[in-house]
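Let us practice reading a record.
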Amino acid sequence: MKTPFPPFEPHGPNDEARGPRLREIPLRLIVPNMITVLAICAGLTGIRLAFEGRYELAVVAVLVAAFLDGIDGRVARLMKATSKFGAQMDSLADIVNFGVAPALVVYVFLLDQARSLGWIAALIYTIAAGLRLARFNVMAEREHKASWQSEYFVGVPAPAGAMLVLLPVYLGFLGLTPDRAFAYWGSAYTVLIGFLLVSRLPVWSGKSEGSGIRRDLVLPIMLGIVVYVALLMSYTWHVMVVTVAVYLLSLPLGARSWAKKYGTYTINGPGDPNVDDSNDDIGRHI
């Protein structure tokens, strides 16, 4: 009696049909992916908490998700554990934590009082975050990167956008009544943040190799960070409002610095020969 399948021969013609062989995976390769998974869990938990009316915990969960999602790539590079799988996981987590979760928290807390306009504003922000992340991925895959990319972002980065779009919620925690007038203002503000995400505004990244810190300023800066964290723990929503205000005020300064170097206030604007966007299909059409 013949067997229904031919016997297996190592390195024979049927070897490739077995698929990839199982092997042990180093723990350092798992750690960054676990951080990404935890970030997704935090973002989704923030959405649930918002629908349950526990808004402060919801905002904390979303901010924690944004923080974890922002460090997983750096952890992977430090541990030399970068992988294509991790990159795909990170991209999927970004749209949840920087786009969907903040938009839904703001909508449930405030924008739903603006009816359809509030929902449209939440949709615009979420789509803008997705477009911003797609443009970032396209630019990151370029073989030859422009020198300015180490110093400037093209538009507000998605993690910062998640922090900025929650400003109406911070103000609500400080006592501002979430009525319909506030909801209309919040809807306009949400659309504005979405526009900043997909804009060509040059935004300081703080990653320039030449942006060193003078030796005599190291200790004062470290002390300032400690004071900031202490204030953040004690006066969380006051500090978050001030942080958002300072960040928004820094945007014109970044554009002015770019204009001094390249003569325009937007990246890839007229008369800017230093930037080649021929491979940036998404960014060029926005």
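A brief commentary: The chain has ten helices and two strands.
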